[in-house]
Amino acid sequence: MYDFIVFAFPMITGMPKNHRFVLGQQIESQMLEILDLLTEVNKLDIKDRGKYFVKFSGLFDSMRVKIRLSKDLVLITVKQYLNLMEKHNEIIALIYGWLH
Hints:
Blueprint: H1 2-13, H2 17-41, H3 46-49, H4 53-72, H5 78-99
Helix pairs in contact: 1-2, 1-5, 2-4, 4-5
């Protein structure tokens, strides 16, 4: 997730100002919330991690939709979007394996 954020933040910074401070800020906030949650859940026993999957899933789905909206509004390029979705899918697979 850390690498995802490092990759995504410069894209958000490149958004037009009027969108960066609304949509971009929401995406950044969700990314940081996911990072915080991962850091917290990483400290738990494996058997206690499963109850957090629904929260992860909800945050990731919401973030993914906002990133897609950014692409559809031409705030990020299709290439940037595809790179983000590739990294997003890798993270989801890792978290799913990590929680189950």
